[in-house]
Write a structure and sequence with these properties.
Elements (H helix, E strand, L loop, with lengths): L4 E6 L5 H12 L3 E6 L2 H10 L2 E2 L3 E4 L9 H10 L8 E5 L4 H9 L4 E4 L4 H18 L6 E2 L14
Parallel strand pairs: 1-2, 1-4, 4-5, 5-6
Antiparallel strand pairs: 3-7
Helix pairs in contact: 1-5, 2-3
Length: 156
Amino acid sequence: MQPKFLILLVDDDPLLVDILTRAAQGSFPEAFFIQVFSSSEAITYIQALDGRGPKLVLLDIDLGAKLNGFDFLAFLRTHDQARFLPVVMLTVDDLPSTIGSAYLMGASSFTVKPASFEGWKTYFATLRLYWFSTVTIPPIRFQKWDYWKPVESGVE
């Protein structure tokens, strides 16, 4: 059975998914999280999808790797199926230039990580109200492309 609301979490903090899962239990029980730790892993995850995928992406900017969250956002916005996937930037950097860059690159919204567990619970109550109860997200079906399959040329 598919989770009701799959959220892709792209963040290099290995403890964050546990915190988010516990915080969302009471305020957003429909949420189910898949975490990847880098932009490279996120790109691999999206490219491997066949059928339904996440309904929302929570994306950190600083992923402690060569590729950052903006690189993954740029990938999503040029991907045939994923370009309409809502992306919520979830980061600690709230500089006006960072916020502007996120929106310029196609982020759906920009949020700052809460500093407490109570803050996370409130965050998910608000996230649920908007992204689950209010907004209509377009249905997105992913098709896994077989890049190794030769193209039929008609020449023998």
